[in-house]
Amino acid sequence: MAHRQRTHRIEEKVDSGTAELVSDGDRPRAWTLLVNGTPQSHVDLDDPAYLDFEYVRRLGHVADLIAPPGRPLRVLHLGGGGLTLARYVAATRPRSTQQVIEIDAALVDLVRRRLPLERGWRIRIRTGDAREVLTRAPEESFDLVVGDVYAGGRSPAHLTSGEFFSAVARTLRAGGFYAANVADGAPLSFVRAQVTTLRAVFPEACLIADPAVLRGRRFGNLVLVAGQAAPPVAELTRKAAGDPFPGRVLYGDELTRFASGAAPVTDASARPSPIPPRGIF
What we know:
This protein has helices at 54-65, 84-92, 105-114, 130-135, 162-171, 189-201, 211-214, 233-241, 253-259, and strands at residues 9-14, 17-23, 30-35, 38-44, 74-78, 97-102, 122-127, 142-147, 172-184, 204-209, 220-227, 248-251. The protein is α/β, with parallel strands linked by helices. Helix 1 packs parallel to helix 2, helix 1 (54-65) packs antiparallel against helix 8 (233-241) and helix 5 (162-171) packs across helix 6 (189-201). The protein starts with 8 loop residues before the first strand and ends in a 22-residue tail after the last helix.
């Protein structure tokens, strides 16, 4: 019979507060990163292709499907945490070139020391504000831009507007996609506005989420995917349906109905995402 390992905990002060690394009792070299009590990342140093968090698996599906298997990608990650998705892309698509933007320099140092990257991975980490660094990126330079920036469990307001999404679109190559992790709960007004705003910039978009979250029955993560070309909806639908916690994909008329009545967000009207309910983590 398998036995759970004893849990180990590492705590350090970082620029944004307190970071904790908590060992996974079921996986020998796996850790969960929390910042101020909010889970940020799960990293398995022995198996970088293992994705524990539900929404990260959805982002992983996007990375799997936007290009033929094994083809290297150019990826920009807005938000670093434990670098889970960057590790995944490096492991599943060798020779991919990736940039990670993380505002918390002390957190980057902790991750580098405690959760080291493998030699040979082409992952460059820069510290700074995600939008400021994005605006300096060359045009048409990325196959995938991933938005996963959180402060105090909330998406910063300046990363939710049409002006920000236009800056993202400028950096995408032909056929490239933007994929974002959005957290919301009933009545889902934040994510509905994000859908409307994205669709004002990108001709094509879809939404992936747990059906209970889509119905407003619980607070949770939803993944938005947008680009100039249609996302691989059929394949994403199959992948989401086969997850341990199955998800739904909204696209086309179904997504239009979901976002009906929501106004697009501008820099002037932008607000952070909702505060997560107490005790959710």
